[in-house]
Amino acid sequence: MGRIEDGVEQEGLPRFIMRVALSPVYRAGTLNAQPLESVSGRTSPALVRLAGVADVPALAALRPRSSAKDLLTRLESAHSCFAAFASASALASQWGCESDARFGELGLALPLASGEVFGYGAYVQAAHRRKGISRALTQAYNEHYLGEGFRVSLAFAVLGRRPFGISDPHRIATIRTLRLGPFRKLWVKTYGSRAEYWRDRLKQLRWA
After folding, report:
1. Which of 1, 8, 89, 191 has the fewest CB atoms within 10 Å, i.e. is most exposed?
2. Would residue 13 count as lying in a domain?
């Protein structure tokens, strides 16, 4: 906030707004498509279940950057939240969406095809990592959507910020964007045996 205030003071508000609006913003990320499969093996002792409206305060406390209003809106639309609980506290969460895949960092959205679900927002509190909670969330997520007839889960990660990237076998595309004021530019590169299919599918990407 201090840098913004200094910029406004030094340049004046109109000039500062103009400079920010005309500053280029470059973003890049990878899109993965992974078949949904049953997950076996040891699971976490934490209770993992679908979260409901009554769990919004616990989910908001898990990740304070997410407002309770936003979480409630998601739960009341085509989004599902799988969460691990200990007593009334949420320890971890994993979200799924059945309508659009939204790549918020890039400002893009992709309509999902039949049988596809978009997974996002996976998070485990630092103190509870390496205890099987992530695996238990994946198990609950996969089994739920397999039971609903879904077969593929899409996931998106900003390059350099998440654990999957160019070496992931499920990577299907790299997406890059450049924004400069009202100007928008999009580059897509697809990979794998279904590269042509995904090249056509990703023509449906739209600015959200």
Report:
1. 1
2. no
